[in-house]
């Protein structure tokens, strides 16, 4: 397959034929060279599957790298600010990785598959950068995106469905844990992870068994409201959960052309991922200086009055919108499950402390007429949606 075909989204996931059978709106986009659906029939219905039953999202296009070798742990600890020595085999860690200036390049998850064997998953491709970072380490990096098919199985009935598939012992799997099962003679990796903030799992298997896995999953879930979903439904769920998305809530530092537009993990509310007690890691000196001197920006979660969604809105310290703005909204949505107008944004410090009141300048169009509204917003410090079942062990059979 040539580069032009990859650019146009010509790669087909092993689940593509299953998705095509359900597709009635023909709304697709290109994700890392793959065709990926925005929605399959109705994004609202797909969203409510996540929150009320189970939504299934094709994760195959997510970039996946296998990291092995005697220095695999040392390599990862140099690469990311989180202390990977604390992530035992059978566990998954969310993390970010930064440039030398402490600015976030991307975020993702690192799976400690077995002793000394890791898989790094990310939204964007980083193969060249990962290879360049191996200098001085005895480590092997394998790009295995096309070698692993993956599904996100998310929602309150997800555990019940997977239990019906005969995954014995799944009830003991803890939040951010992983387990290996046999499926038709192939290894099925199940991780208790996801991008929805709800009870959910991710399934990883060789491409040759993908359609059989799909059929078994949907057969087990036919009495539990299982539905395939697209990106629009997942996007709404991740905003409710307060999860960040590259190109939405931050720009990858290695792709910006101007200074001051990228963000550090401290500015993204991810300071808990930065462990200054461990040895050197990318961006450590810059992050230590920022820790001492203070950050320029601060990520905020906003509970906004009214129901007019604050897409790409400026944030002001008062309702008059006089003077310079103090920041802007990066992701916004009306949350059906929370019955709230919610948003993520970035503001200049010292603004944006939990409990602070700010004002959001919202423009919306009705019947070709633009309207402007100043809406009051409160900065909150918790996700908008975080049910207890997300991390309960064992999960309930909803």
Topology:
Elements: H1 3-7, H2 16-22, E1 27-31, E2 34-39, H3 43-52, E3 54-58, E4 63-68, H4 72-79, E5 91-98, E6 104-114, E7 117-122, H5 127-132, E8 140-143, E9 149-154, H6 158-164, E10 178-183, E11 186-191, E12 200-205, H7 210-220, E13 226-228, H8 231-241, H9 284-293, E14 297-304, E15 314-316, E16 327-335, E17 340-348, E18 357-366, E19 369-380
Parallel strand pairs: 3-13
Antiparallel strand pairs: 1-2, 3-9, 4-7, 4-8, 5-6, 6-7, 9-12, 10-11, 11-12, 14-17, 14-19, 15-16, 15-18, 16-17, 18-19
Q: What amount of the residues lies in strands?
A: 25-35%
Q: Structural class, judged by helices and strands?
A: alpha+beta
CATH class of the domain at 3-60 and 148-241: Alpha Beta
- Rg value: 21 Å
**What name does the CATH topology of the domain at 3-60 and 148-241 carry?**
Gyrase A, domain 2
CATH architecture of the domain at 3-60 and 148-241: 2-Layer Sandwich
Unreliable spans are 1-9
Structure description:
The protein has 398 residues and is an alpha+beta fold. Among the domains are: 3-60 and 148-241, Probable tRNA modification gtpase trme, domain 1 (Gyrase A, domain 2, 2-Layer Sandwich), CATH 3.30.1360.120; 296-380, Elongation Factor Tu (Ef-tu), domain 3 (Beta Barrel). 19% of the residues lie in helices and 32% in strands. The chain contains 9 helices and 19 strands. The protein has helices spanning 3-7, 16-22, 43-52, 72-79, 127-132, 158-164, 210-220, 231-241, 284-293, and strands at 27-31, 34-39, 54-58, 63-68, 91-98, 104-114, 117-122, 140-143, 149-154, 178-183, 186-191, 200-205, 226-228, 297-304, 314-316, 327-335, 340-348, 357-366, 369-380. Strands 10-11-12-9-3-13 form a 6-stranded mixed sheet. It has a 6-stranded antiparallel β-barrel with strand order 14-17-16-15-18-19. A 5-stranded antiparallel sheet has the order 5-6-7-4-8. Helix 3 crosses helix 8 (231-241). The protein is globular, with a radius of gyration of 21 Å. The model is unreliable at 1-9 (pLDDT under 50).
């Amino acid at each position: 397959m040539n580069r032009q075909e990859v650019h146009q989204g010509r790669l087909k996931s092993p689940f593509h034929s299953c998705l095509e059978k359900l597709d009635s709106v023909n709304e697709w986009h290109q994700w890392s060279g793959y065709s990926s659906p925005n929605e399959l029939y109705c994004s609202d219905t797909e969203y409510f599957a996540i929150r009320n039953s189970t939504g299934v999202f094709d994760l195959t296009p997510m970039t996946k790298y296998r990291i092995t070798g005697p220095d695999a742990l040392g390599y990862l600890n140099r690469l990311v600010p989180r202390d990977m020595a604390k992530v035992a085999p059978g566990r998954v860690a969310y993390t970010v990785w930064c440039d030398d200036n402490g600015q976030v390049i991307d975020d993702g998850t690192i799976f400690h598959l077995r002793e000394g064997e890791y898989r790094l998953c990310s939204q964007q491709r980083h193969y060249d950068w990962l290879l360049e970072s191996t200098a001085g380490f005895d480590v092997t990096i394998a790009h295995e995106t096309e070698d692993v098919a993956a599904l996100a199985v998310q929602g309150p009935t997800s555990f019940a469905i997977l239990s019906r598939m005969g995954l014995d012992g799944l009830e003991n799997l803890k939040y951010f844990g992983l387990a290996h099962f046999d499926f038709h003679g192939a290894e099925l990796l199940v991780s208790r992870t996801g991008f929805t903030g709800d009870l959910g799992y991710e399934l990883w298997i060789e491409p040759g068994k993908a359609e059989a896995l799909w059929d078994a999953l949907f057969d087990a879930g036919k009495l539990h409201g299982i539905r395939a979903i697209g990106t629009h439904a997942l996007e709404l769920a991740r905003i409710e959960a307060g999860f960040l998305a590259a190109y939405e809530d931050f720009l990858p530092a290695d792709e910006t052309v101007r200074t001051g537009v990228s963000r550090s993990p401290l500015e993204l509310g991810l300071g808990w991922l930065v462990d200054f007690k461990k040895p050197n890691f990318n961006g450590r000196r810059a992050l230590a200086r920022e820790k001492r001197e203070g950050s320029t920006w601060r990520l905020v979660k906003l509970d906004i009055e009214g129901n007019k969604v604050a897409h790409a809105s400026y944030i002001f310290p008062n309702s008059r919108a006089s003077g310079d703005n103090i920041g802007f909204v990066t992701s916004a949505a009306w949350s059906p499950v929370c019955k709230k107008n919610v948003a993520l944004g970035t503001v200049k410090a010292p603004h944006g402390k939990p409990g602070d009141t700010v004002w959001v300048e919202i423009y919306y169009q009705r019947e070709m007429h633009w309207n402007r509204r100043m809406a009051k917003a409160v900065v909150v410090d918790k996700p908008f949606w975080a049910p207890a079942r997300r991390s309960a062990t064992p999960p309930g059979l909803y």
